[in-house]
Every structure is written in C-alpha cells, then in structure tokens.
Amino acid sequence: MNRQRVALFWFSATVAVSLIAMLVPLPAVLQPFKPYWPALVLLYWALESGDRVSLGLAFAVGLFADLLDGVLLGEQALRLTALMFIALRFRSRLRFFPMWQQTLAVLALLLNDRILLLIVRTFAGEASPTLSWWFSPFVGAALWPFLFLLLDDLRIRLRIA
After folding, report:
1. Cα separations (Å) of 112 from 17, 66, 126, 137, 153?
2. What does the pLDDT profile of the chain (161 residues) look like in tens digits?
3. How far is CA 93 from CA 84, 115, 129, in A?
4. How far apart are alpha carbons 47 and 35 in whole angstroms?
5. Which structural domain range is residue 99 located in?
6. The pTM is what?
7. CA gap 108, 7 in Å, rounded
8. 112 and 83 in contact (C-beta within 8 Å)?
9. How many domains is the chain built from?
C-alpha cells in the first residue's frame, strides 16, 4: 500500500477504535470515570494533522456515535463539532504548548464539552447529574499525555504525515 492509503487506514482505524471504546460497558461504579474517547482521538488528529479533521467529519463521527450509543440524535455530533471548532481555531497555539499546558487545555475543552452536554440534556428534560458525572473530563485529561504519546509514536513508526 502506498503511504496515503496507510495514513487514511490508520486515521480511520483510530477513530473506529475510539467509537468501540466508547461502547465498552463498565461496571456502574466505574462508569463516571469513562473518558470520551472519540473526542480525545479527534482532538489528537486535529492537533497533529489539521487538514485531516474538519467540522463536517466531526459532525459525521458524532452522528455515527449517536446511532451507536442510542442517545439523542445530534447530541454527540453537536459536542464533537463544538470541540473541533475550538481545537482547530487554536490549533497553531495548542500544538506547541508543553505537555502539561496541553493537558490543561484538553481539560478545559472536555469540561466545555460536559457543560454543552448538560445544556442539551437539560433541554431534553433529563434530571440534573450527580457530582460523579463531572469526573470523566479529568480522567480524559489525565489520559491525554499517554494517548498523545502512544498515537504519536505509532504515527511516526508508520511514517504517516
């Protein structure tokens, strides 16, 4: 395979694995700690290869995630589109942050995502979430350096631009 096909396959595979990871059931005790995998993977690709990720792609991945997860149609599409808009807008700055600042920026993006989710679910008539509902962005931010380094190492080994 040529390099462009390998790059497209690798990108598609990481997004698919993130969607599958989103569906993995966890015990009720661990459920609040489950990070939002599609957001983390799309955020990585937005920072490392901004031309590969667009708002339309984020919306399409979000709609597919909505169908897989069985939530309100458009909920995750809105969340991922908003997250990618901010990430792509500040991509040139975020790319060159030291890892600890990048992790804080990812935490801010994930907290913004949770606030947007809270607004959508409030308008949908759901009850207010518990305090443990807010743990997920912190777990996602804590996993960010490891996910970033893992995906970056694999991207470099496969020589994907």
Report:
1. 24, 19, 19, 9, 28
2. 687 888 889 999 999 999 999 999 999 999 999 999 999 999 999 999 878 899 999 999 999 999 999 988 999 999 999 999 999 999 999 999 999 999 999 999 999 999 999 999 999 999 989 999 999 999 999 999 999 999 999 988 887 76
3. 14, 23, 33
4. 19
5. 3-157
6. 0.94
7. 29
8. yes
9. 1
